[in-house]
Structures are given as C-alpha cells and as structure tokens.
Design brief:
Structural class: alpha/beta
Oligomer: single chain
Helix content: 40-55%
CATH architecture: 3-Layer(aba) Sandwich
Strand order of the largest sheet: 3-2-1-4-5-8
Number of helices: 5
Strand content: 15-25%
Pfam family, one: adh_short
CATH class: Alpha Beta
Family: Belongs to the short-chain dehydrogenases/reductases (SDR) family.
Keywords: NADP, Oxidoreductase
Distance between the termini: 31 Å
Shape: globular
GO molecular function: oxidoreductase activity
InterPro entries: Fungal_SecMetab_SDRs, NAD(P)-bd_dom_sf, SDR_fam
C-alpha cells in the first residue's frame, strides 16, 4: 500500500551518492513540491547543481550537520521559502562520513572517532530537533510527517559482519562507523517513542561506492 510522502522534503548529504539519488527519485513524484537538497562539501556539488537547473522544485541548501549555527541558518532559509505555517513532511538524514586512518581497534585516534560520532550520530539528533516544529505542523494539518535515518547493517551487533570496507584505494577497517550507526539506531527508537505523531525509522539502503 502506497503511503503519501507529502509536499515538502528535506535530504541531508544530497550532493552525491544515495542522497543525490533520493533527490532525483523524489522529484519524479507529483505530490512532492519542494525538495530541500542539503549539502556541506562544495567539492562534489556540480551534479546536484546541474539537476537543480532542470528541476525547479529542488532547492539547494547549505547545511553542516555538525554545526548548530549552520542547522539554524538552513531552518530559517527553508521557513522563508515555505512561508507562514510552514510544514515539513519528510526528513531524510543521509549525511555521514566513512574515513580511513585512526579508526581501528589497534590504532584509534580520538579526533577521528569523535568526528564520526558527531556527524553520523549526533548530526541527525540535532537536525531532527531543529525541524521538529515543522514536522509537528504537518501532523497538525493532517499531513504525513516522517523521519528516515539512513543507518547500516554495520550498526547491528547481530548482523554487522565486521568485514573490511572497499574503496578505490583498496580495503580498510573502520569500527567507529558501525558504532556511530548503532547509536543512531538507539536514538531512532527513542525518537519514535517520544514523538509518536511522527513516523521515525532507520533503514539500511545498501552500499554505495560513489
């Protein structure tokens, strides 16, 4: 059974990979009128900009999920676009990092660990908190309100394989990525319990080599 998405969608980490793919697919839906494609890394944004030129419903918003000021600035920008009684129907937390070096059991680097946890775990926590009012507005208007946190099987103690990741440079291990997604899963459950009017889920969409 198809569930309505609603008019207004926000995707973090939308400049490449899974995030960009989501923006392109969501743009095909007639009911979706505003797609806020949020990015942080200016280096790989050309494809998103090219797509925006072809799709007027896409709005490119700068948003660093590790920076509270950036989150609030993005919120204000989106409110200005949507106008009074703004509502958000779908928030997809896709922004994440997966780095090499200083992320193993034998050679942990505190800053590298904290950077993963700050981006992959705390980032969605802070973004969701900032946009809760807009999501609640959607429910008050009898509109859909959903939060999708992009997680990973690596965040599962039962199903996480612990096998090395594969990159263009070769294979590597990163234990803090799974730790960060495990924390995200725990948070998602708490979010669903404490905000029952909003559908909140964590999903693993699969591996993207882009």
């Amino acid at each position: 059974m198809y569930q309505k998405i609603g008019s207004n969608v926000l995707v973090t980490g939308a400049n490449r990979g899974i995030g960009l793919g989501l923006v392109k697919e969501l743009s095909k839906l007639e009911e979706v009128q505003h797609i806020f494609a949020c990015f942080y890394n200016q280096v790989k944004i050309e494809e998103l900009k090219t797509f925006q030129e072809q799709c007027p419903k896409v709005y490119i918003i700068e948003l660093d999920v590790t920076n509270d000021e950036s989150i609030q600035k993005a919120l204000s920008e989106i409110r200005n676009i949507l106008g009074e009684n703004s509502s958000l129907n779908l928030l997809i937390n896709n922004a994440a990092i997966l780095e090499q070096g200083g992320v193993t059991v034998q050679e942990p680097n505190r800053e590298n660990f904290l950077r993963h946890l700050n981006t992959n775990s705390l980032g969605p926590v802070m973004v969701n908190a900032a946009f809760l009012t807009l999501l609640r507005n959607a429910t008050s208007l009898n509109q859909p309100a959903k939060i999708v946190n992009i997680s990973s099987l690596n965040g599962s103690i039962e199903k996480g394989s612990g096998t090395p990741f594969i990159s263009a440079e070769g294979s590597f291990k990163n234990i803090v990525y799974g730790m960060s997604k495990c924390a995200l899963n725990h948070y998602t459950k708490a979010l669903a319990q404490e905000e029952p009017s909003i559908i909140s889920i964590a999903i693993c969409p699969g591996w993207d080599h882009l």
